[in-house]
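FIELD: query
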Amino acid sequence: MKPIWIVDDDQSIRFVLEKALAREELPVRSFSNPRDVLAALDEEGVAPQVLVSDVRMPGGSGLDLLAKVKERLPGLPVIVMTAYSDLDSAVSAFQGGAFEYLPKPFDLTKAVELIRRALDESLREDVLDERLAQMPEMLGQAPAMQDVFRAIGRLSQSHVTVLITGESGSGKELVARALHKHSPRGSGPFVAINTAAIPKDLLESELFGHERGAFTGAQTTRRGRFEQADGGTLFLDEIGDMPFDLQTRLLRVLSDGQFYRVGGHNPLKSNVRVIAATHQNLEERVKLGAFREDLFHRLNVIRLRLPALRERREDVPALARFFLQKSGRELGVEAKRLSDAALARLTAFDYPGNVRQLENICHWLTVMAPAQTVEVNDLPPELNESIPAPPRAVAAGEADTLPSPLQASTSAAVPQMAGAAPATGRWLDDLEREARSLLEAGVPEVWEALTRKFEARLIHTALDITRGRRIEAAHKLGIGRNTITRKIQELGLDD
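FIELD: result
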């Protein structure tokens, strides 16, 4: 791990932070002015894991240093120290991309905690940057997505027709592109058409082309998508919405590879692999007489079901960070970061619009979130509408007769994760009784004792659910990988 750099002209501030971080066994390097920091970056070719800088120093401003460092190291977390009254500096720090600001005089414990948080974020971003450097066309650690990846691998040398099913926004076209890319036709064209987005009277021409004079406005001969995809792959999205008479023509092409342009008399052939996709239940459409059964069986040679995002919540953190990085690059700004609480809220959301909705949310956050680190209150309204109202005060003896506010509002306001037991609030009553007993008995350090018990039980449960996989447990809890590792060591859970 790279050292934490501290920049302050006040020797006592540097000394206090150095000692505190040394007790945490964290490497530290100190500077008395911004010039030395920039020289170290330029001449030594080194970089910190986290930078902690004062604002007003002889020989340069901490805000100017922030701007210059961010030009060179856009992902570096920078904590700016500033006086209570220096509100302009605080605002400027956030506008310049600071991770957080630390008001002086500061509480040393809180300062170390903030640096720890920035450190966790930095290490997490380092891992993410390595992954993004060789980012695949699709992301997913969830078992359901791994099944999709395995299917793509098995089909990599095949020309067989594939039917992809899944809700709107779940990424069906990405799967189709991956199937094409990793097939023997990968060097050929990939042509996509959404059959639901084109009017019925134009769709036939789009698919098969038309001859000059075939209809009013057809002033030239036009090649259709089947001709354009010759030697490659044709992706027919939302095939369930295709008009019934066009289904007949499509079946004929799939059967013998031959078709006619609209207004044409000469048969044409095209060597095309067809991949179709739909969000509809085609078996039900067949029963209703809205979809040809013979076409269904022709398309349904191999079926891939793409899971909805709510079925693969463990993939939300990686997808969110990827989309924030992508939006930042597209808009020419530094990528926003998600606080643990904001990430937990994103992960718990049901996403009726699936991955496409998550991408749109990340783009919205890149534009609208006021600070570099996104907090829960910065999330768009649809994610915060389901927050239950804070509980009212309950008189003594009333707790056992009234349902908890969370229990009363969960079914109406907060989507339940599959298989999750409804919250009862009883554990809060048990916690209150335990705390009262310890406090009345005069037991020392009650806060520390109960906090350790709570954290240990929470982490133990997460590790049990993930079968000991720490990174997955950290994602589920909404904390960083380094945080869970440190907590496991502190709480003796390795024993």
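FIELD: remark
The chain has a mean pLDDT of 80.
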